[in-house]
Write a structure and sequence with these properties.
With about 625 residues, the chain is α+β, with helices and mostly antiparallel strands. The protein is about 20% helix and about 40% strand. The chain is built from 10 helices and 38 strands. An 8-stranded mixed sheet has the order 5-4-9-2-1-10-13-12. Helix 5 packs across helix 7 and helix 6 packs across helix 7.
């Protein structure tokens, strides 16, 4: 450009334009990220501003604009725009722009770089869809600016705000705005930060929460769940309109009344099935036995299929449809099981639960849309039976670890009632092994292992149990923890007791387990239950030590020692008993027989960060005891 021909009067405007362009380019310059926000961070949210604008009880609009800088390759997934939608909410607009490390715009994503597909696997029948990107930029770091607008057309629930939703993610600026019509009520509560309070307009229609300079949450072993650490705002509806129905979420009781109405009149069974129920329970006096018979009948003729149709995925399909088709989602299968039990004169209760490894945010005094699954409660005089109706393998009254030890909402005619589900501890979660082992004259190891896996440890092994023999054998060869195992025989047997038991029997040999040193033989008496690692020692532990589960592991190994050898060295026994758990290892020799016994269980709980070094010492002591070797000499 020939600047000599530019009129003098235009120069001020050009200078301002150049300054503006420079400022825009520099706005997302990675170098401008404050040093404290780069510490422990694999990505940094530069800006994240969401706005939820309500028109009335059934219509609303959500807009979000987010700018995130990706510092490390493992954070690439955070760069993608992901927008789920369905018939109740539709995507009105979306845009994604890429910037380089200096904040210079690279380009806007084109329409064909967005994928829009069903948000379902092969076993789903629903109208849920997802719009998403799969971004790859060769040069790190880079920045992504994404924005979208969602329109809710037939009802909505207020959703909670989590500005920092991942580990190793820092936040420069974030805000959430809620705009409601004059007089509309909703509820809010700040968590993990007392000063996270909204700015409210004079007419009480606009509420704004803001946060700045949130450092990344360091990823540490045995740390508490993320939702216990990051600041967030719980938001809940009061009165609402959803899918042509009216409800109230001011209390759990009110919300339960709405959910109960969605299930009313949907438990009618065809006459042949009603007759079959009567046949199955004829002559059976014990109610628990009746429940078992009908639960197993349901399992034998249905399969789980996720269905998100109906009133936003809240209303179950009627029992007659499940009876006819043989499939249903958690809601439909629970409703069908209720109908079977009702025909036999047994009352049961449709129950909402947050299912998964974490227990979710369920507060007795703050109702929210906090559940993602449905289970069934069967109250008895002295007990309550809990049924997981989506499993074809769980025994009667076994809920599974993903539903245990948490608050759930029973849905009754009188409304919702919060109750806890049973918690499983080391009395239920166990692996008990008994091994017969011998060392041959060649130095090879042969052993037979009989083990019982119960509770959560049954769940760990269930997937293997359901596979074919070839897959089972390959898994065992790769995961027994010994070199070059030869598996001559193996079997599994499932006992459907109230706490399920999965039995495993193995016949194994290995030519590489025992070590030789001259006329000496060295071997580890603990064959299958060795701890192989411990979390790293940390000088400055940040988080509390969180042990999420209690489980018991017991091993008894009877060794037959080779002829002509005596024990030259026997490890000392060890006993540890503290707030983290219990461990005991001991040895007993009689003739050429050596018995090794090991018992370990963890104690569920949360301990101060200052206890982390003690916890690591505890695990290290177990690791060293598990590695201890017996030395035989000729």
């Amino acid at each position: 450009m020939n600047t000599r021909n530019i009129p003098f009067a235009v120069w001020p405007f050009l200078i301002l334009l150049l300054i503006a362009v420079g400022e825009a380019a520099a706005k997302y310059d990675v170098a401008s990220i404050p040093a404290p926000l780069r510490e422990n961070a694999v990505a940094v949210v530069r800006e994240n501003h969401s706005r939820f604008e309500v028109s009335n009880e059934s219509r609303a609009k959500l807009t979000e604009r987010k700018v995130i800088t990706i510092l490390e390759r493992k954070a690439e997934g955070m760069a993608d725009l992901i927008v789920p939608y369905d018939s109740y909410k539709r995507v009105r607009s979306y845009k994604v722009t890429l910037y380089d490390a200096q904040g210079k715009k690279i380009r806007d994503l084109k329409k064909d770089e967005f994928t829009d597909r069903s948000n379902s696997g092969s076993s789903h029948y629903d109208d849920a869809r997802i719009l998403f990107t799969d971004i790859y930029v060769s040069q790190l770091p880079f920045t992504v600016e994404m924005e979208y607008e969602l329109e809710f057309r037939n009802g909505f629930f207020f959703f909670s705000w989590y500005p920092q939703d991942k580990l190793e993610l820092s936040v420069e600026k974030a805000s959430h705005t809620v705009v409601v019509p004059r007089g509309m009520e909703f509820r809010h509560r700040a968590r993990n930060r007392e000063d996270l309070q909204p700015t409210v307009s004079a007419d009480n229609t606009t509420w704004v929460w803001q946060l700045e300079s949130l450092p990344a949450i360091k990823n540490e072993a045995y740390m508490p769940p993320l939702e216990q650490l990051v600041p967030h705002v719980l938001l809940g509806s009061s009165r609402f309109h959803y899918g042509g129905t009216n409800g109230n979420m001011s209390t759990w009781q009110d919300y339960g009344k709405w959910a109960y109405e969605l299930t009313e009149g949907r438990q009618t069974l065809p006459a042949p099935t009603r007759a079959r129920v009567q046949e199955l329970v004829a002559g059976v006096e014990d109610t628990t036995e009746k429940v078992r018979i009908l639960y197993e009948f349901m399992q034998s003729r249905t399969r789980y299929v996720s269905i998100q149709l109906g009133i936003g995925g809240f209303q179950p399909f009627d029992a007659a449809m499940v009876d006819r088709t043989g499939y249903g989602d958690c809601k439909a299968l629970v409703n069908y099981t209720m109908a079977l039990l009702k025909e036999a004169g047994i009352n049961s209760i449709y129950t909402l639960v947050f299912s998964g490894p974490f227990r979710g945010d369920v507060f007795p005094d703050f109702p929210t849309k906090a559940f993602n699954h449905v289970i069934l409660a069967v109250p008895l005089q002295q007990d309550t039976l809990w049924l997981e109706c989506t499993s074809n393998h769980h025994p009667t009254a076994y809920l599974g670890s993903s539903n245990s030890g948490r608050l759930v909402l029973m849905i009754t005619a009188e409304g919702g009632k919060l109750v806890p589900t049973p918690a499983y501890n080391h009395a239920q979660n166990q692996i008990s092994r008994h091994l017969q082992a011998r060392i041959l004259s060649t130095g090879a190891l042969e052993f037979t292992s009989s083990s019982r896996h119960t509770g959560a440890r049954y769940e760990d092994l269930l997937g293997l149990f359901l596979q074919g023999a070839g897959q089972q054998k390959r898994y065992l060869q790769q995961n027994l923890g010994i070199n070059n195992p030869e598996i001559s025989d193996f079997s599994y047997n499932l006992q459907k007791t109230r706490v399920p038991v999965l039995e495993e029997v193995l016949n194994v040999s290995s030519s590489q387990y025992v070590s030789r040193a001259g006329n000496r033989i060295l071997f580890q008496p603990n064959i299958l239950s060795r701890r192989n690692s411990v979390p790293p020692v940390m000088a400055n532990r940040t988080h509390a030590v969180h042990i999420s589960e209690s489980a018991l592991y017991s091993d008894t190994v009877h060794w037959e020692l080779p002829a002509g050898y005596t024990i030259a060295h026997l490890p000392e026994g060890l006993l540890l008993d503290n707030e983290f758990g219990f461990f005991q290892a001991n040895y007993h020799q009689e003739g050429n027989q050596l018995t090794y016994q090991r018992t370990y269980f963890s104690r569920k709980g949360t301990h101060p960060a200052e206890k982390y070094a003690d916890f690591v010492d505890f695990l290290n002591a177990i690791l060293n005891a598990d590695r201890a070797q017996v030395v035989l000499a000729r």
